[in-house]
Amino acid sequence: MEVLPVIDLRNGHCVRLTQGDFSRETVFDDDPAAVARRWVDQGARRIHVVDLDGARDGLRGNAAAVAAIIDASTVPVQLGGGVRTVVEASRLIDMGVDRVIFGTAAIEAPDEVESAVAELGPDHVIVGIDARDGMVQTRGWLEQSKVTAIELGSQMADRGVRRFIYTDTSRDGTMTHPNFTAVAELSENLRYPIIVAGGIASIEDLVGLAKLGVEGAISGMAIYSGVLDLASAIKTIDELTDDGA
User: Could you report the per-residue pLDDT of 113-162, keeping only the tens digit for each?
Assistant: First the structure.
């Protein structure tokens, strides 16, 4: 299982939001590229980047910061937030992004997601399933759909998507532990690689997710606040995997 540090971008800064609330923002660094280098130095093999302005507004709001992160990183970068069309997804891949993440578009423009899979290949496309109480949220988590997380996952799998990110938005940025029950249920229904975000607070949380068989775990608030040491977390999970867990 991969442990992925997240860089959330807003107004060009590296920030964290609590439960996706734009009014509950903490700025951690004014230099996102430096943050990327820090995580790579601590052993990260992939960086997860979210353009928060893009997620809310549907427009690329942090292009310069994203370009700087890609230039600074020696590991693959995956990006979500405001990716709504195959044209934008292709542009990001050409720019150096390894995987693009569709969220809102999976609900509002599923044909664009399907086209992106066909054009870019399933290895370069992820669908983000952001849910609260089991129901998918869109547009930077400001709107709630009538689609369940499992329904969206199944619909996207039928359109060729082969990798998902699941976030329990009520736990994101809270360090109140992942929603293991929802993760297990989604994993059982989808049977495709799932990366989990939201609530991770400890090595034990990561071990629990690894035992559920998920492909990756995204950490934000825990590593930024120092509650979780990224290098130690990666080492622990690597050892667990080496032991065949």
Answer: 999 999 999 999 999 999 999 999 987 777 888 999 999 999 999 999 99
**Hey, which bits of 115-206 come out as E strands?**
125-132, 135-138, 143-148, 164-168, 194-197
Set out the domains of the chain in order of their start, with CATH numbers. 2-242 (3.20.20.70)
**pLDDT (tens digit, 9 = 90+) per residue, 212-228?**
999 999 999 999 999 99
Is 27 within 8 Å of 83 (Cβ atoms)? Answer: no
Cβ atoms 185, 150 nearer than 8 A? yes
Compute the distance between CA of residue 126 and CA of residue 232 in angstroms, rounded to an integer.
Answer: 27
DSSP result, 200-239: --SHHHHHHHHHTT-SEEEE-HHHHHTSS-HHHHHHHHHH
Q: Which residues contact 198 (CB under 8 A, 6 or more apart)?
A: 166, 167, 168, 169, 170, 171, 172, 178, 179
41 is a catalytic site residue? no
- Please give the torsion angle defined by the CA atoms of residues 98, 60, 17 and 192, in that order, rounded to the nearest 10 degrees: -40
* Continuous segment of H or E residues that includes residue 71: helix 63-72
Q: Residue 173's CB: how many other CB atoms inside 10 A?
A: 23
Q: Which amino acid is at 25?
A: E
- Annotated catalytic residue: which of 8, 51, 168, 172? 8
229 is catalytic: no
Q: Which of 51, 53, 130, 168 is catalytic?
A: 130
> How crowded is residue 199: how many other Cβ atoms within 10 Å of its Cβ?
21
Contact 228, 204 (CB under 8 A): no
The rounded distance, in Å, linking the Cα atoms of 229 and 203 is 9
